[in-house]
Amino acid sequence: MSLALDAAAQDLLFRRAHTARSFTDEPVTDEQVRAIYDLIKLAPTAHNSSPLRVTLLRSTEAKERLLPLLSEKNRAQTAAAPLTAILSVDLRFHEKLPKLFPVVPGLKDVAYADPAGRAEAGVLSAGLQIGYFVLGVRAAGLAAGPMTGFDAGAVDKEFFGDGRQKALVVVNIGRPSATAYNPRLPRLDFEEAVTVL
Amino acid sequence: MSLALDAAAQDLLFRRAHTARSFTDEPVTDEQVRAIYDLIKLAPTAHNSSPLRVTLLRSTEAKERLLPLLSEKNRAQTAAAPLTAILSVDLRFHEKLPKLFPVVPGLKDVAYADPAGRAEAGVLSAGLQIGYFVLGVRAAGLAAGPMTGFDAGAVDKEFFGDGRQKALVVVNIGRPSATAYNPRLPRLDFEEAVTVL
């Protein structure tokens, strides 16, 4: 009632959507991934820095490099998922700022010279983009199964050997199977999460 | 074409939406904020940990405590915004896990005992939730003006003196004015952000 977003879209993105733990065999196409990216790339990040990087594990070989680095309970569902993506932050995202934020030409060197501060800013904006990505997968009519249960250091070494990227979330993507969803867990009440001053 | 989300919803959330820098005088109601929260609380976080906390600055007094802690270019737009929220992470979010993740009763002490690891996990999931929040504001037919240009340590001290919360993003919320939007900045091409293995 207080929302402008139509009910079907609310259901698709939030109300009927769930984290999926199993999927049908229907493949996720390159066109679908491109449509997801072209939608979510528009949502905001600090200084338009857009530090999220997506590594799609399309080949069996690529997925097999990941499986042993996942916590055991995440392996079978990932092995069976039509598509798995590693979502990471580019720790040198500032190199793209001359393209992404041309309005302040020197920003790359002024605001993001310090690697620790840059990493902190990058992880935060990449976190926002991971939120957008999950909703983008749902916007494509698919289900997402995001996971943080993996050995992040080992994933970085295996997939990002140059140290430039840091894995944050692994996400399975596909059409949910009939048994994909666990029951919805409780959420915090408004008063637990929101303070009015 | 590859998306299930209808075109009006795509426009509302992503394509026609922009970060807003000025707003009309129309107030943002408590009902709107509640509707936004009740929608976005459903989207996923690690272990359903839901670490985002929202501090709404409703009173003039509350907003005046924030203004001097913002970088100068963010002050006037925030002073004039109908509503401003501080989005923070609860660094002791694990205390809510017995409610939020009852399926693993001991999780609070097993996975999140270490404060540094807990903070890292909390910031990441709060980051996802900030992404959901921005889109939730847009779902309410409003515009969001998220900002990271503020003295985070000073905001924590002023608003979260007990050290329990850490401010991540400040966001102005309202109906956008006719001059609210800057031109859209470039985004990374698909090939710059996505790697296929």
Report on this model:
Two copies of one chain form a homodimer. Chain A has helices at 7-15, 30-40, 60-66, 75-80, 97-100, 107-111, 115-139, 152-159, 190-193; strands at 52-57, 83-90, 143-147, 165-174, 194-196. In chain A, helix 1 (7-15) crosses helix 7 and helix 2 packs across helix 7 (115-139). The two termini of chain A are 25 Å apart. Chain A has a four-stranded antiparallel β-sheet. Chain A has nine helices and five strands; from the N terminus they run ααβααβαααβαβαβ. Chain A has one domain (21-175): 3-Layer(aba) Sandwich (NADH Oxidase), CATH 3.40.109.10. Chains A and B meet through helix 1, helix 2, strand 1, helix 7 and helix 9 of A and helix 1, helix 2, strand 1, helix 7 and helix 9 of B.
